[in-house]
Amino acid sequence: MNVRTGILIFAGLLLAKTSEAQLFGKKLGELSPVTTKQDSAVGASNYADILKDAEVHEGMFKIFKKKQKVYFEIPQCLLDKEMLLSSRVTATSNNTDVSGGEMPLHPLLVKFTRDDEQVYLHRLSPLNQCDPMSPIYQSLQRNNVEPIMEAFKIVCENADSTGIVIDVSFFFCSDQKELSPFKPRTPLSFILGENPLEGSFSSDKSTILEVKSFPLNLNIKSRLVYTVDDYPFTAIMTRSIILLPDEPMRPRISDVRIGYFPLRKHIYTEKVDELKKVDYIQRWRIEPKDEDVERYRNGELVEPKKPIVWYIDPAIPERWRKYIKLGVEDWQAAFEEIGFKNAIVAKDYPVDDPNFDPDDIRYSCYRYITTETANSMGPAWIDPRSGEIIQADVLFYHNVIKLLHNWQFVQLAQVDPKVRAKVFDEETMGRALRYVAAHEIGHTLGLMHNMGASYAYPVDSLRSVTFTRKYGTTPSIMDYARFNYVAQPGDEGVNLLPPLLGVYDKYAIKWGYAPIAVENPEAERPILNKWIQEKQDDPMYHYGPQQFSLFSIVDPSALSESLGNDCMKANRYGIENLKYITSHLLEWTYDEGVTFEKPEELYREIFSQYRRYIEHILVYLGGVYLDAPVMGDQKKAYKFVSKEKQQEALAFVLEQLRAFPDWYCQPEIERNFSFGNTKVAEYMGLVVGSLTSSGILSNLSVWEKQDGKDAYTPVEYMDDVYNLVMEPTLKRQDLNHYERVMQYNYILSLMMAEGKGITGEKGRRSLVEGDHTDICSCSTSHLHERMAMSPVDGSDTRIVANAVYHYELEKVYKLLKRVMNSGDRDTRAHYRNLYFEVSKFFEN
Q1: How many independent structural domains does the chain possess?
Q2: How far apart are CA 474 and CA 487, in angstroms?
Q3: DSSP codes joined into one string, 86-137
Q4: Has this prediction a pTM greater than 0.85?
Q5: Residues 6+ apart with CB under 8 A from 773
Q6: Residue 434 sits in which domain range?
Q7: Would you tell me which of 311, 574, 579, 681 could form a disulfide with 741, CB atoms 3.0–4.6 Å apart?
Q8: Do 115 and 210 lie in a common domain?
């Protein structure tokens, strides 16, 4: 599929699906059929027979278990009450897609109702809202019938008719799509070429293992067996039903200028001339205890009514566990600034509580996952009525240790001898795990990535001992500013890590969690706006949303893995450090009698880090600084990167590409590794070919139309590309292998671009954040982050690009004709081949 076409298809699908649509799946017109597959021969016709020889579990629902039969006794008073139904993979035989401890699907908002013969399980969607006193409400009711997921035959009532007994055995021991152990296929997985596992269910091998009931929730544990690609697949599933409060938490309306995960609502009202769309932030319910309200109002620190408690998996080795606890509790400082002490705490799994179950939706757990995956993620699960976070998880995949090891080596080995070790000491790895924990906990508090945070710092401040010890590498732990790769050999005492918690993080917690004594969410907005206005001119408090390479990365002030407010300056420091590390690679990794597997891996990591540095700079080309203005703040939605900065970036890329093979491709190093270890020339050609991207020309074309006098026009830009790429030829210099590769890819990209009328974005966009592993997938809900898009969609790019590409090709053709007989043998052969290709192109 053409990448551009794929992007448009996905964008359309994404716009068609609200966040609630992802939560609740089907539209009203696509309801699951009513199922009545209960065993009609229950063998019991009255309550006494149900009780006989049954395990009885008292709680929210009374649960009876008789061998493989499970019955719910639902109190009449809990009918029509809203609940969450969740499904967690407790254990699995195949963790390709879903690991033990993970929820592959969002919890469902449900309720039970009844008639004379059956109890119905309804799946609810609170997306649409309306004042019940409005005449619109009756239409909303007609057009939003609550669909039925399942129907259960009433077996009997209890002795005093306060409860109804139903057989739920089939429901919890069958292949229920909404409670599946498999990840669903989505438009995003289709575009990314992912192929989630699917299985054929084996009912005869599946069974209910355990039931538990508590005052406000219950758990059913089942073993479900499937066949996946002709292989057996088994998953232990824990399904939880939890009763939600009658009165939802008061929501807080989100603001695009601060990074919280949103929950979309559609409000039908006659008071505005359109469907009113409102986003609530996702957050925990943090409020003082009733008896502490006056103390809190008087400025005393108080403990919240319901603190956030994190339970740390005992499978995590003790030498790491204590740093994870520190990372969790680093957030206490942010809550203390708004009057709450011990608002978030980390504890071990309680060994003396027989009712504790890490798969119970009441408990938030930091889970250890033994897979080769090098990642960590922090999904949170909400009450979809209000955005209240009910429970969260952090999934700590084992090989994140490898990722942190290699990152610290390629970013810090020039200044920190400890990261040159084969196995890091406890403190060196612990500090990195603490950073990961704090970042993921931030997500579980509702915070999105703030990729613009590190842009607040002047680059040279990152070499200052006093500055970095106070502020770290970024104002926000929610940034992807890993370690201080700006620090140079000899910069003793400089802090090499992000802060434990940045000033933006504390500000964001205040904005999202500080109680505001007004009557409703709308009344909060002036106060919340004032808090933002107080900080809007301080870059330390700026929110720069994450940009996704699937769409477009155009803003160089909000990049993943970058440091400082000038990527050219910061990344020049970084590349100098890579040169130093490469020159010492074999020395620092020497281990008598051991293969070169680890140094070869680190050699590739150096290449990956170098690519990050180059790809940061590519974003300046056609780049646009993005903002989120509101009326009255005098800001603009976008501003083009200056002509001078773009020219500096273009020169930087070509300068660094030409120098790269000289310091990286060292025979004395490479001959120790497997043949063809790196593809340096291929990468260099890919970068140069990407310089002709239609996305760059599209943005420059818009700038030219808006401000022709000061704009960097498409023709000027392409002339600069020509002069830099063809510079050795213009100077009649012999070309080495890498120069020939770059020129070939440049000219090929021009021919492909003009031949198609518009060059595919695949080249450039596959470079930007191409195959880099990011800590923190978090969850699919993170795709709701405000996606920073290019201000134009290239609608007139064909007209502009075709003319520019043809003009540049004509220049190349004339130059090749002049020089085809100059230079050494390889250079002449190169020119003649290119001349032949371009001539053939024009002939056709």
Answers
A1: 3
A2: 14
A3: EEEEEEES--SS--TT--SSPPEEEEEEE-SSEEEEEE----EEE-TTSTHH
A4: yes
A5: 374, 375, 403
A6: 282-544+573-589
A7: 681
A8: yes
